[in-house]
Amino acid sequence: MKNSILLDLKVAIKNGFLHIFGSSFINKIIGFGIGIILPRIIGKDLFGEYTYAQTILNMFLLLQGLGVVPAILQYCSGNYDEDQKLSYLKYGIKIGMISNLVICILMVLFSILGSLPIKGSMTILLYLSAIPVFSIIFDIIQIYLRVLYENKKFVILSNSNTILYLIGIVSLGILFKIKGIILARYMSLVLTIILGIIFLRQHISNLSKVEYPDKANKKEFLKFSIILSLTNAISQLLFQLDVLLIGNIIRDASIVAIYKVATLIPMNMLFYHHL
Fold it and tell me: What is the value of pTM for the model shown?
């Protein structure tokens, strides 16, 4: 029993468990710091509006990419032929981009035609409406690095995104307030996507040479990803409802901000989400 546990531990360490756990730990610490710094840079009310808009964004992203990111991990890890991996990756990118473009359009329409109880959140949500396009690209790059067991590069990419966002918040947030915070979000994603493309440049250059999976495999892949997406959406919904309900009941941005800051410690102790 003891030997079996030691063997499993050695395999986990070899496959990059410590890298991934370490990356999650660092990101949680930086995320905690961001949550503490943000209200001091943009003020309590603006932070409340931003938090509420972010919660609405997360609600839209519950079905991000129709679940293609974990589906790519599942199918590409199970196929050791390079062309098969790239075939599923190519199809996953197509489905993920189409679904997230639809999410972007829905967000724009909601921002223009809808209404929110927290004043100012609608404008912020409109500014954030292109985030789904960049986030799906970033997530697919990250997951494919894990498929290739390039865990050091995965850690570099993940931590770079968080650190760049922190730097952007401090510099651009002080200069441009909420617009600077949103710009920092986009810049951190764009720069790390470029870095990820450099990491995967050889594989990306081969994408045009492979065909999509056949009809049967497409159907199987899509069915798996949608079921996974719905399951994940239900579990993640509980993490978003608190801020949503507080905003709808109290309708005060400062109360939303106070509550969000208060939840930083327990929420940043949830390391399993990134493992």
Answer: 0.90
